Structures are given as C-alpha cells and as structure tokens.
Amino acid sequence: MALTQPMTPSRAQRIAVFRALNLGDMLCAIPALRALRRARPQAEITLVGLPWAHILRPRYGGYVDRFVAFPGGAGLPERQPAAGELEAFFAGMREAEFDLALQMHGSGPASNAVVAAFGARRAIGLGDRAPEDRIEVWPYDDARHEVRRCLHLLEAGLGIGEADDALEFPLHEEDWWELQRYPEPHAATTAPYVCLQAGARDPAKRWPVAHFARVGDALAASGYRVVLTGSGAERELARQVADRMRDPAVNAACDISIGGLAALLSGASLLVSNDTGVAHLAAALRVRSVVIFFATDLRRWGPPDNGRHRVCQAAVAPEPEAVLEQALALLSATERREVSRNRTAPVPS
C-alpha cells in the first residue's frame, strides 16, 4: 500500500473510526471513542457511520471532531448506496489522508475491506483475515460484550488499556424543548411513569404484544402511568399493546428524535424493553430497565451489571410473570406504595 506523506509536527494525527450501524450498536462504541480521545487528545477524530449518525457528532463533541456519512454497500447490508455514492465516498476518504483507520464495525472481511480502502497510513480491525494485507486484523472474540470488543481493538492494536466501559448519552436543552412539542409524550411526564418498548428493528426480537399488555396492566395497578415508546413506524404496534390493556396507556410512539426520546426516557421509573436500541439508551441514561432476551446473545448485548438493570432470558419468549417479577424487584415495595398513594393525576387518553 502506498503511504501518504509523513506527518509533520504541525499537523494533528488524523484518525477515522468506522462503525456504520444503528443506535444501540453506536452507543456501544462510545466508551472506545472516549478512551481514544483520552489517549490521543490532540488527534482529529472522524466518525464514519450511516447518514443518521451525524446527530452524534455534536452530542459527543468531546470525542469526535468530524463526521463522514458512509453511503452503504460494499458487502454490508445496512444501507444500499445510490449510483456513484460509494466511489465518491472512497475517493473522499483517500483524499483525507488519514494516519490511522479503525474498523469497529464488525468481524469482516467486508468491513475490513471497507476500512482498508480508506488508504490510511495504518489500518486496524477485528476479524478473520486481512484483505490484501492492507489492514492489521486482530481476533474477533464472540465471548466479549460489544462494548468490550470495541475497547479490545484499542488495547490490542494501539496499547490503549484500562478504559471504563460505561455508556453515556448527554442530554441537551433542546431535547427537553422538543419533548414539549409532542403532547402525548410530554403529558405523560406529569406523574410517575414506566416505559414499555414493544418494538425492535428485527421482528424476531419482539416479545409478544399480549405479554407487554399484561406487564403494563400490572405496573398500572401499582400506580404507575404506562407510556408506550417507539418510532412513528412502531405506533401501530404500540396501539396494539394499548388495546389489550385494561388500564389506559399513553401511546408515545412517534417521530420524535433520539434526543427527545432520551429526555422522555430519562424521567421514567423503569423501562421494560426488547433487546433493542432503547435498552442501550436506558443504560446510557442510568434508567432502570428490564431487558428481554430470547433471540439475541445476552453475553454480547446485555445491559451493564450495575444493579440498575435486570434481564429475562429464555430459549423462547419469557413468560410475562418472569418479566414482571424482575420489574417489581427494581421498583421497591416502598416506592410502589408511595406512587400508588400519591397518584391523583388522570391518565391521558
């Protein structure tokens, strides 16, 4: 591989980090970005992700200086590029003359081939093989949690160790302003509430609607307002949960931004969720959660083991009673009695 011109003392090291994935996957990479910034405080760090992830650059400005949108393709299924997009993307990456490129996307070889094509002076990734020897590849350990796998790349490839694995999601003032523009979600915050997330990008990870309804009714009986979260595309799914509940629930599934959703979630007493991005968001916000696993690997995607989170795992969908038991364990009896005694506000229809 032809090298670009050597770095001079006047130019900061240019580092590209490739992770073109969705919300939960991106949050799992934040500890690695934080560790990279601490180890390379003067570097210019560019996050390369799917177009939606441009919103992360200002939110994590302490760790990321620039954002470049990956148009998709190149053997990766997340997004298909329009004609000419991919060629223009690679040309721009080569023109940037990165000193270092890190492949935090997956196990390769397709993701390693993408990063090798950046033309950086040095490229490092995880996976099975190095395409055309243009990238150093370290083993991809399936037993590691996703957060720890990203950190492992820094330790193995750059010697950056002793990093903490805490997720984070900084809230900004505009997140609260946005929440106020959505009547249903905002009205839900006037009394103690719990959030239920029935949706998931992968239908195979969706716990049955009827199960969510049973848990929702039990939590409502404990005095909590039940708020059904999700995207605008998941509003019908949330409606199905509400229709099966005896108690009224707030359907807050709408096209609110991730920041507005985070503002809503931050005030919840608890989240009950499938293994999806909102579960990682709850962990980043330090919101208590029960996460349901039956189609994905708990070792790789489970919430932090810090006492705020419980998991319900089964080979098939766990029973509602098992999920409710974990939820009530997080919501202490004393707290539930206080909520039930003080709840006087009507639930929005």
Structural account:
This protein is α/β, with parallel strands linked by helices and 349 residues long. It has 2 domains: 14-158, Rossmann fold (3-Layer(aba) Sandwich), CATH 3.40.50; 173-342, Glycogen Phosphorylase B (Rossmann fold, 3-Layer(aba) Sandwich), CATH 3.40.50.2000. It is built from 15 helices and 12 strands. It has a 6-stranded parallel sheet with strand order 3-2-1-4-5-6. It has a 6-stranded parallel sheet with strand order 9-8-7-10-11-12, with helices on both faces. Helix 12 (277-285) links the parallel strand 10 and strand 11. The longest helix is centred in the middle third of the chain and has 13 residues, at 146-158. It is elongated. The N and C termini lie far apart (63 Å).
Salient structural properties:
349 residues; alpha/beta; Rossmann fold; 2 domains; 6-stranded parallel beta sheet; 15 helices; 12 strands; disordered N terminus
Short description:
The chain is α/β, with parallel strands linked by helices and 349 residues long. It contains 15 helices and 12 strands.
Q: Could you outline the blueprint of secondary structure elements for this entry?
A:
Elements: E1 14-18, H1 23-27, H2 30-39, E2 44-49, H3 56-59, E3 66-69, H4 85-95, E4 100-103, H5 110-116, E5 122-126, E6 136-138, H6 146-158, H7 173-180, H8 183-188, E7 193-197, H9 209-221, E8 225-229, H10 235-244, E9 250-251, H11 258-266, E10 270-274, H12 277-285, E11 289-293, H13 298-301, E12 309-313, H14 320-330, H15 333-342
Parallel strand pairs: 1-2, 1-4, 2-3, 4-5, 5-6, 7-8, 7-10, 8-9, 10-11, 11-12
Helix pairs in contact: 2-6, 7-11, 9-10, 9-14
